[in-house]
Design brief:
Layout: H1 7-18, H2 35-38, E1 51-63, E2 68-79, E3 83-89, E4 96-101, E5 104-105, E6 111-112, E7 117-126, E8 131-140, E9 153-158, E10 164-169, E11 191-198, E12 209-215, E13 221-228, E14 238-239, E15 243-250, E16 256-263, H3 268-275, H4 278-288, E17 299-303, E18 308-309, E19 315-317, H5 330-337, E20 345-347, H6 354-372, H7 374-385, H8 402-406, H9 419-432, H10 434-446, E21 459-461, H11 463-474, H12 479-487, E22 493-499, E23 502-508, E24 519-523, E25 526-530, E26 536-540, E27 547-549, H13 560-576
Helix pairs in contact: 5-6, 6-7, 6-9, 9-10, 10-11
């Protein structure tokens, strides 16, 4: 998620982070973390490449009075190659008390964690294809986010009446802030069972299916959940004195999906209004994309003391029930889009992050169009267009960490994975047509054109695969399209000249690349689609006839007017920004 409507704040946070040395990073919150812990994704440790993460059983006890966390993680790995040691990611602020391997306790000198990667010497080699089960007992003060969810960590808070209220969020820095994991996108466990022990009077909605709630003798309760194939950062702790609304959605695919919303006391009326959005939003996604990916578990949303995040089947919501002219809650809709784009379809590497955020961002105007028609679609897209920065290419073609993509100060495209990604998809849909766009999207999300409940599973995707899907569906190579929009920072410019009763058009693409993108031209009352073969085209224009280029704004291209506006807007922000000491 990390929705980038707060781009100015994000840029400020990125600059603060860049100013700190890389051994410890107090600018990201306290306790300070190492560079290894801050890193999520990037090149994978060779020992971790040998692992298939079969299952995890995670027992958490959260102590709000001391702001500490105790954990017992039982991890089941299958060996892809012979294993002599086990390497998992875990913040060193959560020191390990004990480890057993396949039931055998290890001596204290059998493991170490100086930089945030727990390295465990195995008592015997594990052969290829065999499993190893590690039980890790750990605990301490979890890292606290400065500005969640744009910074990861624990968020300790209180409800308006003073009850404990806290949550985790980990997309940027990763799962290792709370539990020992494989902190890269392709490190998903096959199944995770979560047990969360909380103080009396509190509830702990989490991922997947509720297995049951154990009432403990001292008044505490233990909440037990199970989820299949969760994203690495998607396991979430959410604790508060929640009240609950529930219902069911009868899918157009024949299955019945349970829906839940956990909210704070005193908000029943607002909560019911938000819950009323669940079913129509589900219907939109199922009609335009395909089946809800986790119908066998639930649609879950929980109110959190941070803005929001796409925690699989338990999306965080902290938008304060804000009203918007489009008539739906953009934060709820955005996070829910990630159940398809992020949780079902997961980028195998953060370099392809646009597959999550570009699609999720595009789903908002697409939903506006489904609800109200082309006018709403155009208005919402126009707002997004003005936010495209074009500072870095969206895709680098290299293995990157999450922050190397998300933060401009670290060389990434930043918010362009949202807005430029969304506009690229808008342009692609017009180029290849609605049917082809739907088929490409279904292949990317489900890996097949005929998704039905039970015939697909969460999958990994990439930009290269997405381009192959476009070729497969259309029978054409659109490499020129993706080369310009994904692998170049600058936008193509449409050059117009007039003469002898004709309007001549020429694409000037970055690096002189061929760019044969068709363009609509309104000549008088007629709209003509100009083929732009080899990047050039023309249309007859009788003398005195009014002409509008791209009258329905179907094409993402350079706009000097937008650039002037952005320069003015940024100058106004600088004028009003408080001076730094």
């Amino acid at each position: 998620m990390k929705v980038s409507r707060v781009a100015v704040v994000l840029a400020s946070l990125a600059s603060v982070a860049a100013a700190h040395p890389q051994d410890t990073l107090p600018g990201k919150g306290e306790p300070a973390i190492t560079a290894q812990t801050q890193k999520s994704g990037g090149p994978i440790d060779p020992d971790q490449q040998k692992l298939t993460f079969a299952a995890a059983d995670l027992a958490f006890e959260v102590l709000p009075d001391t702001q500490t966390l105790r954990g017992v993680a039982t991890l089941d790995f299958a060996a892809r190659a012979p294993l002599d040691r086990l390497v998992v990611d875990l913040d060193r602020n959560l020191p390990v008390d004990a480890i057993t391997i396949d039931g055998t306790p290890l001596p204290r000198d059998a493991w170490s964690n100086p930089e945030g990667q727990l390295r465990i010497a195995l008592p015997r080699q594990v052969a290829t294809g065999r499993h190893v089960i590690a039980r890790i007992v750990y605990g301490g003060q979890p890292h606290v986010a400065v500005n969640a969810p744009w910074d990861s960590g624990m968020v300790w808070s209180k409800t308006p009446d003073g009850a404990p209220w806290f949550a985790t969020t980990a997309e940027g820095i990763g799962c290792d802030l709370f539990w020992p994991c494989l902190d890269f996108p392709s490190g998903k466990p096959g199944v995770v069972t979560v047990h969360i022990t909380v103080p009396k009077g509190l509830k702990a909605p989490s991922n997947g299916i509720l297995l049951g709630v154990d009432q403990l003798a001292d008044g505490r309760s233990r909440w037990n959940w199970r989820i299949k194939r969760p994203t690495t950062y998607g396991i979430a702790l959410n604790v508060g004195p929640y009240e609950e609304i529930s219902g069911v959605y009868k899918s157009r695919y024949g299955n019945t999906i349970p829906m839940f919303y956990w909210y704070l006391p005193g908000e029943a009326e607002q909560a019911r209004a938000l819950f009323a959005e669940f079913a129509p939003t589900l219907d939109f996604f199922e009609s335009k994309i395909g089946p809800y990916p986790f119908g066998g578990e639930k649609v879950g949303v929980v109110e959190t003391p941070h803005k929001g995040m796409e925690h699989q089947t338990i999306n965080a919501y902290g938008n304060g029930y804000a009203q918007a002219p489009e008539g739906f809650d953009w934060l709820f809709q955005h996070e829910f889009a990630h159940e398809w784009f992020g949780n079902q379809l997961t980028a195998a590497d953060w370099d392809d992050y646009w597959l999550h955020e570009g699609y999720a961002q595009y789903m908002q105007p697409f939903y506006g169009r489904w609800r109200e028609g082309e006018a709403r679609y155009a208005v919402m897209l126009d707002d997004q267009r003005n936010r495209i920065a074009n500072l870095r290419p969206i895709v680098s073609g290299t293995v990157r960490t999450e922050e190397q993509v998300y933060e401009i100060a670290k060389g990434g495209p930043g918010q362009d994975i949202y807005y430029k990604g969304a506009w690229m998809l808008h342009t692609l849909r017009d180029l290849i047509g609605d049917r082809a766009f739907r088929d490409v999207t279904r292949l990317a999300v489900y890996g097949r054109l005929d998704p039905r409940p039970g015939n697909f599973a969460p999958r990994y995707g990439s930009t290269a695969e997405y381009e192959r899907f476009v070729r497969r569906v259309t029978g054409k190579d659109y490499g020129w399209f993706f080369d310009v929009y994904l692998r170049q920072a600058a936008l193509p410019q449409l050059v117009e000249t007039r003469g002898a009763g004709r309007l001549m058009l020429r694409w000037d693409a970055p690096g002189g690349r061929p760019f044969p993108l068709p363009v609509e031209v309104q000549v008088g009352s007629r709209i003509i689609r100009v083929p732009m073969t080899a990047g050039v085209g023309s249309v007859a224009v009788p003398a005195g006839t009014h002409v509008v280029i791209d009258p329905n704004a179907r094409v993402l291209r350079r706009s000097e007017a937008v650039e002037r506006y952005q320069g003015w807007r940024d100058a106004q922000v600088r004028k009003t920004a408080p001076a730094r000491n």
